[in-house]
Amino acid sequence: MKEECLICKAPLEYLNEDIEMECELCHKKEKSKTRCINGHYVCNECHMQGTDSLIGLCLNETSGDPVEILNRMMTMPFCHMHGPEHHVMTGMALLTAYKNCGGDIDLPKDLLEMNNTLAGLPFRGQLANAFLGATTPRTAGFCVADMSSLTSGTLMLTLILMIIGAAPMSTGGGLKVTTVCVALLTARNAARGKENVEIRKREISRDTIRRAFATIVFYFCWLGLAVWLLSVTEKGASVFTLTFETVSALSTVGLSLNFSPMLSLPGKLIIIFTMLVGRIGILTFFISFSKEYKKKNYTYPQENILM
After folding, report:
1. Residues linked to residue 35 through DSSP beta bridges, in sequence order
2. Engineering a disulfide at 64: which of 100, 182, 203, 253 sits with its beta carbon 3.0 to 4.6 angstroms away?
């Protein structure tokens, strides 16, 4: 690793205070303390363009030793002393070593996000933001980064977490983790041909299973209706953006892709009413409009429907 200028290979100098400099590559002006002795300055964005090679190295790496992986990174030609690429190298090496030792993570997605919105943070800051970013879609609504700048993989994961939601007996929204758990176990039992749903030596009642599937059906029915209405009122908006905004409202999360302020008046009313339904509870909302069923003393013959 050499501490040298990317433009002229001259040594770098460190000033006592920030002064405005212009990047020699993209000509962006910003304040910094670092330049070469010939006055050349390269911004962090241009300096880190070579980090795509770091991702390629990590994806092809087989070692489980993070120190060994980090040493290979430091031998790459674009890696310079005190360069901004060091903000991501340690985290990349640890993630890669963890994956190679049997860790259950999506390494390409995690590496891309580390090199995206979390690139300017030290590893401890990246770890803290990653944990908060995984918790906040459950209904917290604290935005750890500009949501519109996240990669598509991270946005999709956030969308799934918003749909699942929080645990029951809390102020959180979404389907609830128990509802999703019961539905998944029921689906697994259907695939295995097993009739009863059991968790930790306890059988789940049929009424609970019916309520879980009713909640999921009503949730996605409302979601589909709201997204369809928004696609009519918000011309030119992508379906994913509309879906993200609607799920955030229905699950009472509060995250946004910076599209909510640009909604038309009908679109804002749709989102507001969706928030209200999500706060009441999707199943409670639909039950309130249904007549109470009076139990009958007879049953009809059963019939199997072709699925």
Report:
1. 13
2. 100
